[in-house]
Amino acid sequence: MVNNPDNIAWSPRGSLILCEDGSRNPQMIHGLTLDGTAFPFCANNMDFSATGMGSYTRPSGRVLSSNYTGSESAGATFHNEWLFFNIQSPGVTFAITGPWDNGAL
Amino acid sequence: MSLRHDDHLDIIRELAKGESAGRMDPHWSFSRRGFLKSSVASGAALAMPFSALSGKAHAVALPYSPDYGPLAPVADEVTGLPLLQLPAGFKYWSFGWTGDTMSDGRPTPGSHDGMAVVASDANKIVLVRNHEQGGTSGAFASPKVTYDPACNGGTTNLVFAPRLQQWVGAYASISGTIRNCAGGPTPWNSWISCEETTNGLHSGSAYTKQHGYCFDVPAVGAARPVPLTDMGCFSHEAVAVNPATGIIYETEDSTPSGFYRFIPNMPGNPAAGGRLQMMRLAAAHNASITLLGTSYGYFNTGAAGMVAGMSWDVELGGHRRAQQTLRFRHQLRWRARPGPDPGRLEHRARRRLLVRQRRDLCVLDQRRQRPPGPDLRLRSAPRDLYAGVRIERCERGQQP
Hints:
The structure holds two protein chains of two kinds.
Chain A: E1 5-10, E2 16-20, E3 28-32, E4 37-44, E5 56-57, E6 63-64, E7 73-79, E8 82-87, E9 92-97
Chain B: H1 7-17, E1 25-26, H2 39-47, H3 49-54, E2 60-61, E3 71-74, E4 84-87, E5 91-95, E6 112-120, E7 125-131, E8 153-161, E9 166-177, E10 180-186, E11 190-195, E12 214-218, E13 236-241, E14 248-252, E15 259-264, E16 274-278, E17 287-291, E18 294-298, E19 332-335, E20 346-349, E21 355-357, E22 362-364, E23 392-393
Antiparallel strand pairs in B: 1-6, 3-4, 6-7, 7-8, 8-9, 10-11, 11-12, 13-14, 14-15, 15-16, 17-18, 19-20, 19-23, 21-22
């Protein structure tokens, strides 16, 4: 089930996107169709620890070396074939696109 | 084809000047005259979407969508790192990491939170993003768009070029606020950003202003760092604008909390003020709150022991004039009209004004009181008023 859904957004095909703000790890974004079917759509995979993908340094010089997969997603918003959302820690925004018409979102 | 290295500066400068506002569609493609053009909204209205959900005994949770398929790590188009897991066929572009230099030369703030697309044209999409920062290390935007120079919350505007599949740039749009958590997009090409707090001068020497307000952040042009005080001073969560009426519905992240609606004097222009009302349920009181030594009853859904399927009727009332509604201001002076007990009492509410409703009494959650006036006496009112209270608001120095 969905873990503390917080921000929500309509998708262009009339389903809902739900951002999780709970304690599950990894935090996820779910789709919810109008007939009540929920499914995970996206999972936070940002593990920069040594047991994950390893340390990552941004062009700004900021070094990321922690596991952020439990960080909340927020701010999901659709525009035509683009889904935008945020992950609060370490703080990053994503633009996602793909074969939306294959499914309910 | 892609943008040249410094193209983003020209695009961002143009947006910041606000000249292109008239040529961009709002997120809902909804004109100010009220004609609904957005295919999403019209489709949803026709389909009556939530009627389908209410008919189900329970929701079905699948491990993954049978149509999109299972999730697997996908490489970011920008960094090449597997930052997200997605179904096959989906691609993504990361942008705006905390610390990255924005188009205005400032570092990207942290704690990315609520966000929405607020305007678009053929070549670009403009988003406003909240930064839920609650510290007093100083504002991250220019003084021109800063409310309280001590506070480091605020918003940034982001620009994406969908045809080029690339991010264009970002800039700080408002700062000097506290914990910009959620909010909502508007049909007038803006994002209403909401502070999830009630801190202010009374709660710390660092603050220079009262907080707990909503701010209107435009897609283009400079924001006005002036709080929309009539939308209420409390721990805001989200807002939703009814595009047909301009009425703005507001949620509160507090315990207990209310569900509000703001009726603007000018639909589409919340800065012009309006009336704020709290929803009242047709249910007997089951809880009480003590304010200024007096206990007031109210209905608390949590105390009722919520179970799935419970519902309550909403008490409806007409749109009456000043007697039934309350106006919130940064500094407020109330006078109760003489009722059964003659004599006027004054009360100044400096901070949060929280309305709890009983059948005949409106409760004010006062955080500070200035003499004179040891108490606020409320006169009972007919039950058919929406707010159920007769409190008349006076400007400073006015006679009631």
